[in-house]
Amino acid sequence: MTTLRSSFLASVICGVVLLCPMLVLGQSFKSFSFKSFTFKNRTVAVDQLGDCGTPQKPQWTSALADPLPSWNDTASKQSIIDFVTKVTKEGSPDFVPVAERIATFDNDGTLWCEMPLPVQLYFAIDRVKALAPMHPEWKEQQPFKGALEDDIKAIFANGERGLLELMMASHAGTTTEEFETLVKDWITTAKHPQFQRPYTELVYQPMLEVLAYLRANGFKTYVVSGGGIEFMRPWMEKAYGIPPEQVIGSSIKTKYEWRDGKPVLVRLPELDFNDDKAGKPVAINKFIGRRPIMAFGNSDGDFEMIEWTTTGKGARFGLIVHHTDGEREYAYDRKAGLARLDKGLDESPKRGWIVVSMKDDWKTVFPTKK
Amino acid sequence: MTTLRSSFLASVICGVVLLCPMLVLGQSFKSFSFKSFTFKNRTVAVDQLGDCGTPQKPQWTSALADPLPSWNDTASKQSIIDFVTKVTKEGSPDFVPVAERIATFDNDGTLWCEMPLPVQLYFAIDRVKALAPMHPEWKEQQPFKGALEDDIKAIFANGERGLLELMMASHAGTTTEEFETLVKDWITTAKHPQFQRPYTELVYQPMLEVLAYLRANGFKTYVVSGGGIEFMRPWMEKAYGIPPEQVIGSSIKTKYEWRDGKPVLVRLPELDFNDDKAGKPVAINKFIGRRPIMAFGNSDGDFEMIEWTTTGKGARFGLIVHHTDGEREYAYDRKAGLARLDKGLDESPKRGWIVVSMKDDWKTVFPTKK
């Protein structure tokens, strides 16, 4: 500890004396905006300096004293830190340049709670209820009847076709701007049926820490989800710090046209892309154009994304969140229907993917109530 | 001038004394990498300081003393600078936060030369020649016969159907990684038939300066082109400083499958998306999820992109590059076939879009020969 401190002090003095005031600066100004020149500091790393200015051994990292405080000190946590350390260490054989530090995250069940039903389905049901007065026929017609009566079994009785019909009726017909407003209004008022908290509070605190930790280390974090791209974008920047252009998802087609004297994009009741399973690497290639070096998922819908990520050249990292915590959240895997995790559990040990047990690896699940 | 200089000096002294060493720093270290903490300086702005630390009137900007040196001092150049100044000035009614500073650029004819034929068509022709030994039937079959004989008229004789057929035969069938290698190999060796320079040297120097100027002012610059997304990504980072994830274009479908013991994405001979005309706002919405505040194009294929950009709320900017320089490049507009600029010329004055005359507004067209 003394050694560490004196090295730290030596580094600072060395820095100041030789006019390398990065260390001091980093601590003095958290966010200093100066016209087209914004100084933002998210991590302060103090390294032992050789020829003053050449970072050598990392000695101390302030914001990252423990970058993952909601994780128990298990092998899972260590594997994340070890990977990030080795790919960000200049000169290391595993070093990855900042531009190639791409990490992709599934959303439902990986970043937020997806049980008892995917959140977007609750949105669809509420939207069908709101539209019902204009569709008297829905009272007798499935899957709409089921939605109006909160009869989930009836909704699922018609399989994928029924679900698709429900999604199109509830997600199409508006302009993109109108839809964004609908989502924003809904997400700020709707509550989870069991936890009675807004869905955006039922995000996983340990995963929020992973997102922030990666970004502080130069990663670009993306969501790659089977959920609707325009259902996710309106709230993800606030909830996860992920901007719209880094949110990839399933989509319906849109059409450019003039309405009321201005151009709009109208959402059509036609599937454009299903961003699930083998669709995920396809979408990653189309939207990002680079292969990620880290991928995080929780179900077999994420299998190909993690496979694509971890079979690239160089250091690679795959992680599966295993829902083992029936007390604090939900416990499910091989028989979970839409959220099934089966092949992933079998293959992870062979492929070196980390399987996180929510029960054992996570100190907390959701953020503290506000 | 004296006033300016003494204000500058006062600012620096004030900055140093009160431990705001940004100004000094900015000039001392061009790019200082310090473990997960990289300091990159692209612009140094010196403002008159009120309460030391609060930027007020901009006095001097070093890197940007003239941010657009290859532009003549005309109204076009001034309109770009005026717009960037007002949207980046904190407290201005037109101020736009960094996250929303999105600028989109067409590629062919806007960032690089598209005459006498779009560059990608030369690639397609060369690729058809390379594949010809495996397709003896092409010798007698259009549009392949035309491609093999450099008979451009014959290629175009079958209209869009013929072109599409040529593109699919030359662009599909490989994996995405193989295709990237093909493009990289070709783009580093192929030369423009008239200028006898690599195509990546036939980019517009004045536009490179606009790209750099915008990025130095917090903009995210995107390419939104009718060209193939995977034809453009391999070289645009080097040529324009635009990373793959900010390149949007037309695409063919890909399929995820295993080949030779590893997963690959195979390029299928099937159109996925045509990123032209009304497709451009559709793609912008899908890929970026935000409406740009600046858009740059050169043909009627860019009309809807510029329209969508300039009809949003707040300060907006649209610009059309008009090819008026038959001596240094090519002169074409209303009758230019694929590259036709007709509606754009009629509508620009009514809509406040800037029409740049290459002949009058640009000091130089291409970068100096290396």
TrEMBL record, chains A, B:
InterPro entries named among the record's database cross-references: HAD-like_SerB (IPR050582), HAD-like_sf (IPR036412), HAD_sf (IPR023214)
One Pfam family hit: HAD
Superkingdom: Bacteria
Protein name: NapD-like protein
Species this chain originates from: Pirellula staleyi (strain ATCC 27377 / DSM 6068 / ICPB 4128) (Pirella staleyi)
